[in-house]
Specification:
binds S-adenosyl-L-homocysteine, 2 domains, 23% helix, alpha/beta, 268 residues, Vcp-like ATPase, Chain A, domain 2, single chain
Length: 268
């Protein structure tokens, strides 16, 4: 990656109030806002972190967007999973380069992008054709080719089954993940990890019951609370407002059914 901006790069322009504007640089491009115009030519060839001025004198800092910023700025159809939860999902699912993931439902593709950027090979199942198309477009337009080419979305109902085999991870963001547990048992090999993101605790209870009656073990449920701080001079304290709730994360590992030899079997 060059440190200089080039045509075709996605750039985030931050104004003095830290409002974010995502632009794609083009040789003849112009960024219009209520505080004037910035010609893309002012940015092309300049290093990241540059400050430019609009025709009306407004200052914008130009940076390449982070994954969090892309997720929050990208076009969305379905509700996306927020960055604080995306980070936790990558750890809970133990995502690394080359790991084979089945993800359902795909929605706008925010979680897909996080999995892909961490190096996973992702097959996404999505019921709705419009969301599948949205997610495919977001991944193709917002991620580097090296990550985007590891993604495939299929219009499928995951409750009906998983056609892939030898899967390492099953990552779920849909209303009834317990219906996927039996399919995950056969699609994954032992040691595989299932992760489900759920907004309400009733859903979590139902999933945990199904997991308890399955070949999965080591189930855990967590929620991620993130509190930002206000840091200004001597006023250093938590911000007044925080996102109180997004969803619960449940993860479990596929175990091998215990083999009973005659010696270890309990007496009849
Ligand atoms: N995690 C996504 C958002 C997913 S929203 C993101 O971060 O962008 C939930 C999605 O699950 C919706 O798009 C919905 O259409 C899809 N869905 C619901 N039930 C499904 C099923 N049985 N099979 C596949 N997709 C399903």
């Amino acid at each position: 990656m060059s440190d200089r901006f080039a045509a075709g790069d996605r750039v985030l322009l931050l104004d003095s109030k830290r409002r974010r504007h995502l632009v794609t640089l083009a040789d003849e491009g112009r960024f219009h806002s209520h505080s004037g115009i910035v010609d893309h030519a002012q940015l092309i060839g300049r290093p990241e972190g540059t400050t430019v001025r609009s025709t009306a004198g407004a200052r914008y800092v130009a940076l390449r967007p982070t994954l969090s910023e892309l997720v929050l700025e990208m076009p969305r159809g379905a509700q996306v999973i927020y960055p604080k939860d995306l980070g936790a999902i990558l750890m809970a699912a133990d995502i690394f380069a080359g790991v084979k993931v089945v993800e359902a439902g795909v929605g706008s593709g925010a979680l897909s992008m996080a999995l892909l950027r961490a190096g996973a090979d992702v097959v996404g199942y999505e019921l709705r054709p419009d969301f599948a198309a949205r997610a495919a477009a977001n991944v193709a337009q917002l991620l580097d080719r090296q990550h985007a080419r590891r993604f495939r979305v299929e219009e499928r109902d995951v409750y009906e089954g998983i056609v892939e085999s030898g899967v390492d991870r099953v990552v779920l963001d849909l209303p009834e993940p317990w219906r996927v547990v039996p399919h995950a048992e056969t699609a994954m090999h032992p040691g595989g990890i299932l992760v489900a993101y759920l907004p309400t605790i009733g859903q979590v209870t139902q999933l945990r019951q199904t997991l308890a009656d399955s070949a999965f073990g080591l189930a855990e449920t967590v929620e991620v609370l993130q509190r930002t701080w206000h840091v200004e001079g001597r006023s250093v304290r938590p911000d007044h407002r925080m996102v109180g709730h997004t969803g619960f994360l449940t993860h479990a590992r596929l175990l091998l059914a215990e083999e009973r030899s005659d010696e270890t079997a309990p007496p009849a």
